[in-house]
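We examine the record.

___
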Amino acid sequence: MNEQLLARKLELVKAEIGEMTYQTIEVINTGCEKDVVILDKTNVISFYRDGFHFDTYHARQELIRRLGKHAEIVLPESLYVSHTEDFVIENYVPGYRITPQYVEENKKNAKQIGRLVGRFLRQLHTVPEQGLNLHTRFEQDVRNDMEQGLSLLETKLTRIEMNQIMEFLSMYYEISGSTQTCIVHGDFYYDNVLWDEEAGRLGVIDFSEGGIEDPALDFMYMCYYPEEFRREVFDEYGSIEKNLYERSKVYNRIYGLYDMVETLQNNPRKPDFQKGYSRFFDRE
């Protein structure tokens, strides 16, 4: 977001709620859905690129409200929703991104963080679905997106590699059709899971991909973490599903396909093609 566009965005805010005084400003525009402006690490203003969907946002805010009653974490609660639907303002959730590197460098806290992550996911996955108006759409989105995606991949990959992709997708659709679903975060990525060292608290942000899906989707990035950390997460989560971790790696490979396809579509927010290739074809 350039300075002129940022100024126009902030004018929209000013027109509705008046002048906002602040000392520091941070802009994040790497997400797929929205541009985010953080003022003084206090208020977070989100501007949706393809339009604001009130019903969907309301459903996810209701999910956050229900989680806030029980979860021992900090969540992004809504402070203001633009009456023109141009933006929303939420509270800032402090903390460092819990990347695999952060876990490696902070081993003294790794077990505690792992247990809190596992506990949060258990609480999230057991929230009652009634009245939330969240949907199951991931599998259908994959089917729709791969209609064009496979044609693009054929221009870059060998026939053997394409056969591996087709076999993988067939396997995924079969798994998806037989898996019990629950409420998921949907984008439980490093950027969205934070650790506040001073308070010793976990924070989780960006529920914009929340829905009713396979719980393994929220464990997709566990394969990148140290085994000890991963064990703490799964032990605290307490799932009786023996193949939950293996199934989570299926979703990581799906996003490897997306990385390749969207690179070929010239999406500037995606890594280079080789990273997507490695994510899909490198099993370990």
